[in-house]
């Protein structure tokens, strides 16, 4: 299921980014920045959603869909202009932005065990007993 989620997010991001990478008229760098943001956040979302398998599925389907849209457009549509250097930058830079979130790890995830739950339960019941006796105070955050 994780891989399917990565494939779905990757296909959507590839279509959106490939269509927006040229940007508005006379501002192609805006389109490149928007497309890079779409791809980077999509890859990050896929990785957080399903871990590394979803992230790798995202990367693979992103590359396939974006290259198919550029080199084999459906129904004779024109996705790129001839001799456009921004498309070349996009075709090489897009996969890099899709790969970046996969290279970084968040902090180490710790497993919750019965020992840690028991320790927390004993500590909280000790605090409740102290508060009831008037010896301790509960800290409240505002």
Q: Give me the secondary-structure category.
A: mainly alpha
Share in helix = over 70%
Number of helical segments with 4 or more residues: 4
Overall mean pLDDT stands at: 81
Description:
Helices cover 72% and strands 0% of the residues. It has four helices and no strands. α1 packs across α2 (28-71) and α2 crosses α3. The radius of gyration is 24 Å and the shape is elongated. The protein starts with a helix and ends in a 9-residue tail after the last helix.
Key phrases:
single chain; 142 residues; mainly alpha; elongated
In short:
The protein is an all-alpha fold.
Question: How are the secondary structure elements laid out?
Answer:
Blueprint: H1 2-20, H2 28-71, H3 85-103, H4 114-133
Helix pairs in contact: 1-2, 2-3
């Amino acid at each position: 299921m994780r891989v399917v989620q990565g494939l779905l997010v990757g296909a959507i991001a590839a279509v959106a980014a490939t269509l927006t990478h040229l940007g508005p008229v006379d501002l192609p760098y805006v389109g490149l920045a928007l497309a890079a943001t779409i791809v980077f956040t999509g890859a990050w979302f896929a990785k957080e959603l399903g871990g590394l398998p979803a992230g790798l599925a995202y990367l693979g389907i992103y590359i396939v869909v974006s290259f198919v849209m550029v080199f084999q457009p459906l129904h004779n549509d024109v996705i790129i202009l001839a001799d456009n250097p921004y498309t070349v930058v996009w075709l090489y830079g897009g996969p890099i932005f899709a790969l970046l979130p996969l290279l970084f790890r968040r902090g180490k995830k710790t497993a919750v065990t019965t020992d840690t739950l028991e320790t927390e339960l004993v500590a909280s019941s000790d605090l409740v007993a102290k508060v009831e006796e008037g010896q301790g105070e509960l800290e409240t955050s505002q």
